[in-house]
Each structure stands twice: as C-alpha cells, then as structure tokens.
Amino acid sequence: MVKMYYLAVIRKQELKGVILCSCSDFSNFGYFQKKSVKEFMRFSSLMLVGRTDPETKVSVREQPYVCHAFVRSDDLAAAAVTDDEYPPNVAHLCLNQLLSDFAAHFQTTTWQNAQNSLEYPEMKVTFEKFNSPKDLDSLTVVQGQLEDTKIILHQTLDSILRRGEKLDDLVSKADDLSLQAKTFYKGAKKSNACCSRF
C-alpha cells in the first residue's frame, strides 16, 4: 500500500530543529499505537533533517518506513515519512513543492524566529494531494516512470557484471559501439587507472 504518513516543515538548527508545521494520517494504526508512531516519525524527521547537508535530498529506510528529507540553503527543511513502496522521487517532489509554497506564504523572518508551530492550512492540501501518488497529474506520473526506468537500467547493468563478465569484454564485443566510442572507453579507463610504481 503506497502511503504517506507524516509531513513536516522544519527549521534546521544546530542542536534541535523546530517543527514549524506538520500533517499526518495514522488511520492505519491502532488507537494505542498512534501516539508512539507519531513520536517516532517526528523524531526521525528531526534527526534526519539535523544530519542532512543543505541542498541535499535524502531518503533513509527504517523498515517498513522511509523517511525523506530536503534542506534548503537557508535552513528551511521538509521531511516526509512514507511506507517503503512510496516512490522516493514523488516524495521529494512533494517536499520541494511544500517548501516553495511555505516560503511564498511566510516571510523569512517569520519562520526563522518562530519557536513553535505556525498556522499553515495549505499544508493539509499538499499532504492530501501527495498521500496517494496514483492520484497525481500525468506529468508527475511520467517523471516517476522515467525515474523507475533509470533504476531498472542500473540494476540491469549490475546484474550483467555480477555474472563474471568484465565491462572491457562487453565493450570489445559490442557491435553497436563505434570504434571511436571503444577508443574513448579505453582511453578513459587508462587515465583513471592508478600508478602501481612511483
């Protein structure tokens, strides 16, 4: 089941970040689990944002959840906790859109000086839009398919090389590579080789 459980906008600080606003859906959990789940997801989001470098997208798996985070250069950050089937590219698209909308809604000094939650009702709209990625527009779907294709291509190359074949052999046997491409590959490989003697 593809689901987003928790979404937060966070101001990154040196010791501990401040959650500026958040939205969640814990309807899949039992009544007595909800408080613990929320605390875990809040903690995971704050910890991940605190350890993420500016302008970096991160996704960390903690079975059966994945915590996604993005920190802007001005220390405004967003985090989402999803199930492990949720597409990471869609999660990061959500984080980017959320941060753009949030920054447009609030002046920088407002969120930089806030010590607790800010009222931001538009967050619920963003959360509901991305809670089920199958309901997103066609552009998002196409972007997700392209990302999936890239992942499949990388997995295919790795599986070929794991069978004991060398990339050199594959390049030399390839009929669809021009002589110039093969020469370029060999030259690039030689220039990247380390010297064994000084």
Topology:
Blueprint (H helix, E strand, L loop, with lengths): L3 E8 L6 E7 L9 H17 L5 E7 L2 E7 L4 E8 L4 H18 L2 H6 L8 H10 L6 H25 L4 H7 L5 H14 L6
Antiparallel strand pairs: 1-2, 1-5, 3-4, 4-5
Helix pairs in contact: 2-4
Structure summary:
By secondary structure, this protein is an alpha+beta fold.
Task: Provide structural commentary.
The protein is of the alpha+beta class and 198 residues long. It is 49% helix and 19% strand. It is built from seven helices and five strands. It has helices at residues 34-50, 88-105, 108-113, 122-131, 138-162, 167-173, 179-192; strands at 4-11, 18-24, 56-62, 65-71, 76-83. A five-stranded antiparallel beta sheet has the order 2-1-5-4-3, with helices on both faces. Helix 2 (88-105) runs antiparallel to helix 4 (122-131). It is globular and about 65 Å long. The termini are far apart. Residues 138-198 form the V-SNARE coiled-coil homology domain. InterPro entries: Longin-like_dom_sf (IPR011012), Longin_dom (IPR010908), Synaptobrevin-like (IPR001388), V_SNARE_CC (IPR042855). Its main location: membrane. GO terms for molecular function: SNAP receptor activity. It is found in: Endomembrane system; Golgi apparatus, trans-Golgi network membrane.
Protein traits:
alpha+beta, 7 helices, 5 strands, 198 residues
E-strand count = 5
Order of helices and strands: EEHEEEHHHHHH
**Helix run count:** 7
Mean pLDDT: 78
Structural class given helices, strands, pairing? alpha+beta
How much of the sequence lies in strands comes to: 15-25%
Low-confidence blocks of residues? 150-162
What distance separates the N and C termini? 57 Å
Main location: membrane
Domain Longin: 8-131
GO cellular component, one term: Golgi apparatus
Keywords: Coiled coil, Lipoprotein, Membrane, Methylation, Palmitate, Prenylation
